Amino acid sequence: MVPLPFACRGEVVRGFGRGSRQLGVPTANFSDQVVESFPSDIPTGVYYGWASVGNGDVHKMVLSIGWNPFYKNIKKSVETHIIHNFKEDFYGEILSVVIIGYIRSEKNFNSLEALISAIKEDIEVAKRQLVFAQHQGLLFLTLPSQCIHWGCARSREGTQQGDDAT
């Protein structure tokens, strides 16, 4: 497994259109190119961390990496649910994420209701965990574009990754 944190940045593209409509949980999707740039040894599953759209504020997030077995997807996706109410869509904007922790492995569900329940629980887990990691919220804003393993960016302009960014 790739050590965390892991940072990634890319354009928000249209996904399958299920997040808001079927699940009640809007997601921001990375392009296939960004998904393919993730290390192959990152396990599929649900993660938590921080996200920012464009030059906007940093918010808590939950991120899914995988094939969404309930929907029987044939292509891998990375979908981010930002725990914030946005006034409008932000397709075409740059989404920056820092994956800080792992919640659970990817799994199938017997019903849409069971999937929605698991997603809601994932969001609550993320909220609880991120209370303990708030000092890491802004660190990714100085990282280069695309995906990067945190260990590859130990120092940038003399600032160590553990320094407080606020």
UniProtKB/TrEMBL annotation:
Q: Which residues form a coiled coil?
A: 109-136
Kindly report, in one word, the top-level EC class recorded for this enzyme: transferase
Query: Which Pfam families does this entry report, sorted A to Z?
Result: Flavokinase (PF01687)
Known pathway: Cofactor biosynthesis; FMN biosynthesis; FMN from riboflavin (ATP route): step 1/1
Instruction: Name any cofactors this protein relies on.
Output: Zn(2+)
Where does the signal sequence lie?
none
Q: Which SMART domains match?
A: Flavokinase
EC annotation? 2.7.1.26
Instruction: Provide the GO MF annotations for this entry.
Output: ATP binding; metal ion binding; riboflavin kinase activity
Alphabetized, the UniProt keywords read: ATP-binding, Coiled coil, Flavoprotein, FMN, Kinase, Metal-binding, Nucleotide-binding, Transferase, Zinc
A Gene Ontology annotation in the biological process aspect, one of them, is: riboflavin biosynthetic process
- Ranges for domain Riboflavin kinase: 1-131
Q: Which reaction does it catalyse?
A: riboflavin + ATP = FMN + ADP + H(+)
This entry carries the following GO cellular component terms, namely: mitochondrion
Q: What does this protein do?
A: Catalyzes the phosphorylation of riboflavin (vitamin B2) to form flavin-mononucleotide (FMN), hence rate-limiting enzyme in the synthesis of FAD. Essential for TNF-induced reactive oxygen species (ROS) production. Through its interaction with both TNFRSF1A and CYBA, physically and functionally couples TNFRSF1A to NADPH oxidase. TNF-activation of RFK may enhance the incorporation of FAD in NADPH oxidase, a critical step for the assembly and activation of NADPH oxidase.
Its recorded name reads Riboflavin kinase
| Species this protein is from | Cairina moschata (Muscovy duck)
